[in-house]
Design brief:
The chain is an alpha+beta fold. The chain has 4 helices and 9 strands; from the N terminus they run ααββαββββββαβ. It has a 5-stranded antiparallel β-sheet, covered by helices on one side. The termini are far apart.
Length: 254
C-alpha cells in the first residue's frame, strides 16, 4: 500500500520539478526579452530619425504681403508696357534741322532729317511735308537738332525787299524780365529823358547771345540781332549805340 502511494507520488514530484524549472527558465528569459525589445526600439528610433533627416523640408508658406507685392509688380509692369505702347503709337515723324542754319539761308533737303516725337499741341512740320519746307528761308537762327516749326520759316527771303539785320545791345533793364529768344517779335523804342519813341513797330529777333562770349559788347552786354527795313536801320543803330534803345516783347516765337 505504501509502495503504491510512493509510486504514485513520484510522477507528481517530477511534474512539480519540471514546472519549477520552466518557471525559472521563463524568469531568466524575461530580462533578455526586455533587453531585446529595448534594442529593437532603439534601432527603430534610429532608422526613423535617419529617414526623417532624408525627407525634404516642407516648402515655406509664402507671406500674403509678399504675394500681394508680386501681383502689384506684375500688374504695374503690364501697365507701364501698355502706356509705352500707347505713347509709341502717339509719336509722329517730324522734321529736324540737320545742321546749324543761319538767318536768311535757303533750306535744302540735305538740311533736314526726321525724328519721332510726341507732337501733340505743337505746330511742328511733319516729315511728310518735306516738300513744303525745301526752298523756304530761315527767318531766325536754327541750331542743329532743333525741331522745325512754321514760325521759323518763310517763303520769302527775310533780307529781300530791303530788310537788314542790326545788332543791338540788350542790357537787363531794357528788355523784359523773361529775356528774349530767337524768333520773338519785338518793338524797338528809343527812350530819351523818360520819353519813348517807337522806331520799329515789329522786328523779329533772329539771334540772341548772353554772357562774355562772341556776340556781346566789349562790356559783356548781351546782343540781339533784329531784322528791320533798310530805311529804319540807321536810326535803330544810332539809338542802340547811344544806349537809348529798349526792346518791348510783342509776340513769343512759335
Amino acid at each position: 500500500m505504501a509502495t503504491s502511494t510512493q509510486q504514485a507520488g513520484i510522477p507528481q514530484r517530477g511534474t512539480q520539478q519540471a514546472g519549477t524549472r520552466q518557471r525559472r527558465a521563463e524568469a531568466g528569459d524575461a530580462p533578455r526579452d526586455r533587453q531585446r525589445a529595448r534594442t529593437a526600439r532603439g534601432l527603430r528610433s534610429a532608422r526613423e530619425a535617419e529617414a526623417s533627416e532624408r525627407l525634404p523640408a516642407p516648402p515655406r508658406e509664402r507671406r500674403p504681403a509678399m504675394a500681394a507685392l508680386a501681383v502689384l509688380l506684375v500688374v504695374g509692369g503690364a501697365a507701364v508696357a501698355g502706356l509705352v505702347a500707347l505713347r509709341a503709337d502717339d509719336r509722329v515723324a517730324v522734321l529736324v534741322a540737320a545742321r546749324d542754319v543761319a538767318v536768311g539761308e535757303r533750306l535744302t533737303e540735305a538740311d533736314l532729317v526726321e525724328r519721332q516725337v510726341s507732337a501733340e499741341g505743337l505746330d511742328l512740320v511733319p516729315a511728310a511735308g518735306v516738300a513744303s519746307v525745301v526752298g523756304t528761308y530761315a527767318v531766325q537762327e536754327i541750331p542743329a537738332g532743333r525741331l522745325l516749326d512754321t514760325a521759323m520759316l518763310n517763303r520769302q527771303d527775310p533780307f529781300a525787299g530791303g530788310s537788314v539785320a542790326v545788332g543791338v545791345p540788350v542790357p537787363g533793364d531794357r528788355v523784359p524780365a523773361q529775356g528774349l529768344a530767337t524768333g520773338d517779335v519785338v518793338q524797338l523804342v528809343r527812350v530819351v529823358d523818360g520819353t519813348g519813341e517807337v522806331l520799329v513797330d515789329r522786328a523779329r529777333v533772329s539771334a540772341t547771345s548772353s554772357g562774355a562770349q562772341e556776340g556781346t559788347t566789349a562790356s559783356g552786354t548781351p546782343v540781339a540781332t533784329v531784322l528791320v527795313d533798310a530805311v529804319e536801320a540807321p536810326e535803330v543803330a544810332a539809338a542802340a549805340a547811344a544806349g537809348q534803345l529798349a526792346l518791348v516783347l510783342v509776340e513769343r516765337a512759335g
